[in-house]
Design a protein that fits this description.
Blueprint: H1 17-29, E1 38-47, E2 74-81, E3 86-92, H2 98-109, E4 118-120
Parallel strand pairs: 1-4
Antiparallel strand pairs: 1-2, 2-3
């Protein structure tokens, strides 16, 4: 009997005909992309409650740890990555959300973009909202 293994999960939307067609168009057009025009954006965060849950100690002794009590503090870092440099770095005192992401797009990333740039991002809920900032052209002619 085989041992259990973790199954890979894929977004159910990938099987929708419109999404599958868009993915195929994206794959087919990748060879025509200029790597110098790609800007990948991503974020990471740390939280004061991020402590190790396990530890090691000599046999017969107990591991004792501590963590901050009460309100936790989150710090978020977001930046763009070009083929030759990191661009538009931003540190946010708090978690990323649609409002904070819109500020990042308008005030930090937008001014660094050049005509023809292609911004690539993941599907994080903070990248979504009533106003879709990624549909903007920032006054540039594309």
């Amino acid at each position: 009997m085989a041992s259990p293994s973790k199954k890979p999960l894929h977004a159910a939307e990938q099987t929708r005909p419109d999404v599958a067609e868009a993915r195929e168009r994206w794959k087919a057009g990748q060879g025509d992309l200029d790597p110098a025009k790609l800007v990948f954006i991503d974020e990471t965060a740390t939280n004061t409650k991020m402590v190790r849950a396990y530890g090691r100690c000599p046999k017969g002794q107990r591991v004792v740890g501590s963590q901050p009590f009460g309100q936790s503090k989150t710090t978020t870092f977001i930046a763009g990555l070009r083929c030759d440099a990191i661009t538009a770095p931003w540190v946010l005192d708090g978690p990323i959300n649609p409002d904070a992401f819109l500020v990042y797009i308008d005030k930090v990333l937008g001014p660094t973009l050049r005509p023809g740039d292609i911004v690539v991002m993941d599907n994080l809920p903070a990248h979504k909202g009533d106003e879709r900032p990624y549909d903007r052209t920032f006054g540039l002619e594309f």
